[in-house]
Amino acid sequence: MNYDQARYGDDTRNEPLLSEKDSTTVDPGAGSALPDDLTRDSLELPGLSEPELARHYTRLSQMNWSVEAGPYPLGSCTMKYNPSFADAVAADPNAAVHPDRDPETVQGNLELLHGLQEYLATIGGMDAVTLQPPAGAAGEFTGIAVAKAYHEHHGTDKSEVIIPASAHGTNFATAAMAGYDVVELPSGEDGRVDVAALEAAVSEDTAALMLTNPNTVGLFERNITEIAEVVHDAGGLLYYDGANLNALLGRARPGDMGFDIMHYNVHKTFATPHGGGGPGAGPVGVVEELAPFLPRPRVREVNAASGGDADGADASTAADGGALAGHDHGTADEAGGAAYELFDPEQSIGKVHGFSGNWLVLIRAYAYIRRLGDEGLLDASAKATLNANYLASLLDLEVPYGPFHHEFAATAGERDAADVAKGMLDYGVHPPTTKWPEMVPEAMLTEPTEVENKRSLEDLANAFNEAFADTDEELHAAPSKTASRRVDQTSAARNPRLSWHALEAARGASENASGE
Amino acid sequence: MSFDVPDDLRYRESHEWIDPETGRVGISEFAQDELGDVVFVELPGEGDAVDAGGEFGVIESIKAVSDLYAPVSGEVVAVNEALFDAPELVNDAPFGDGWMLELDFEEGDLDDLLSADEYADQIA
């Protein structure tokens, strides 16, 4: 495939900043009603016409890479294409309601949130779900905070969380942030959890084991029921990191494997936009015993308050208003036949985000699940695994661990994985995740996802194999066809310039140094 | 490729060195080469206690983040603060300006460490 990415600017600088294109000094003039000490005399602002502005952003998008431009097999990140029907649903003006509206007037929204809670619970084999956490990592933290509240409620003093060495970095951070000591579990020879090592690691101090299944090289933990038993026998809880749920969707459920808590990465499994620090969602599901500790509020059907469901609010307490204390939201009677209501779980850990979470993300996940349906979700997990295996079968690189599901860690062997990745950029694809997990030397963690078709998988394989066959000199000179060439990662890490002011200061310094 | 392994230092298998005369601690030339360009070093404060074999800090390169292990137990009497602004000193002069700590320690604790010859064999 011939590929040359659009490039604007000259050899040393890309497309200029808006302020560099045109700056206009604006003088607000006299007559401001504001006090003098709150106003300034002039302000420099970009002064561009609409077409200039449109071109600027279009150019930036052309110099960027996205899953809408080509394959993006970034292992562990699950860079699914976000279908536009979900964006259309989220953009519906009827969806834009103030989160503090009286529940009686937003029954449709509550029905949707309740529906999503139910779908996620069904998909994960969990009994109760909170939609509130605003990201996957926030979901992890919420899940472990729930585990901690559960242990404390039962008067058991636990101090440790066990995490396999191959786990995502967020697991370690979550456990540490929740105040636990991390016990790192070495991987067994087959790349999975070594049950004997786990038995040696658990103790009465074990609060939880955090596990990703399939794990970070795509391997299913075959001994999962035994693992669950070891942890449960020690009085610990089993936490499921939902990062790789895409592989199991509709086929196996964490709840059935013995997991007690899980988070869902809706941006991975249910094709909502990846957050990048922006609004996201990381719902958390739990088994019945943990439901009372979930964040508040949650959504339930009004008649569920008198039923024996797993929403965590004791029915009799809810009926006399106890569980709803502090809420303005009415009970079923006051709501005049409202079908859905917000409620506070009895032993709630409190809020981890505002209101019911990031609605515009959640509505996309709901739309995705509804549009795909049972068959579509099954098809997604089948193709995710099929695609990864077909791609791997075409590669000249070795894949040390298998059989794998939706992703695999190839090894660049004697080559530098990061160099091979740079080389791949020139073939019009995004490279895989490199040098992680560390159990595979020079790892290239690859996850094509279900969205690629046969031909694009073959293009991807070609990029792998061509770059892998290039000489070291060629790889060191790569990429040569992208808008940004070889990035100086060392300088970027040692002297980060994270704002326009920092960039200006650096430019000023270099101009002074050259005597201009 | 052979790396410098100064005779007058003692070494840990995890690639830290200590100068028995000054109590200075750092990482070996081999270790900095394995790590690649160092971009960040986190060290304890003066007066902190470190335990032999325990983590005393973190070193981050463009390739990896690694823990630093104390070769001996002791008290930190000096910290190379220059590394906070210039972590590249670890690459440029691992046995010189790239030192990390100075420890007040018991001489007998050195017995558990590798000699220069033993360490050179380990990385050969």
From TrEMBL, chain A:
One of its GO terms (molecular function) is pyridoxal phosphate binding. It catalyses: N(6)-[(R)-lipoyl]-L-lysyl-[glycine-cleavage complex H protein] + glycine + H(+) = N(6)-[(R)-S(8)-aminomethyldihydrolipoyl]-L-lysyl-[glycine-cleavage complex H protein] + CO2. It comes from the Archaea. It is an enzyme of class 1 (oxidoreductase). The keyword Aminoacyl-tRNA synthetase does not apply. It holds the Pfam family GcvP2_C. The keyword Oxidoreductase applies. Residues 7-24 have a biased composition (Basic and acidic residues). Signal peptide: none annotated. Residues 383-468 form the Glycine dehydrogenase C-terminal domain. Its EC number is 1.4.4.2. GO terms for cellular component: cytosol; glycine cleavage complex. Residues 304-322 have a biased composition (Low complexity). One of its GO terms (biological process) is glycine decarboxylation via glycine cleavage system. Residues 1-42, 303-330, 473-516 are annotated as: Disordered. Residues 145-275 form the Aminotransferase class V domain. Keywords: Oxidoreductase, Pyridoxal phosphate. InterPro entries: Aminotrans_V_dom, GDC-P_C, GDC_P, PyrdxlP-dep_Trfase, PyrdxlP-dep_Trfase_major, PyrdxlP-dep_Trfase_small. This is glycine dehydrogenase (aminomethyl-transferring). It comes from Halobaculum gomorrense.
TrEMBL record, chain B:
CDD domains: GCS_H. GO terms for cellular component: cytoplasm; glycine cleavage complex. Residues 22-104 form the Lipoyl-binding domain. It comes from the Archaea. Its cofactor is (R)-lipoate. Pfam families: GCV_H. GO terms for biological process: glycine decarboxylation via glycine cleavage system; protein lipoylation. Keywords: Lipoyl. The modification N6-lipoyllysine is found at K63. InterPro entries: 2-oxoA_DH_lipoyl-BS, Biotin_lipoyl, GCV_H, GCV_H/Fam206, GCV_H_sub, Single_hybrid_motif. Binds 1 lipoyl cofactor covalently. The glycine cleavage system catalyzes the degradation of glycine. The H protein shuttles the methylamine group of glycine from the P protein to the T protein. The glycine cleavage system is composed of four proteins: P, T, L and H. NCBIfam families: gcvH, PRK01202.1. Belongs to the GcvH family. This is Probable glycine cleavage system H protein.
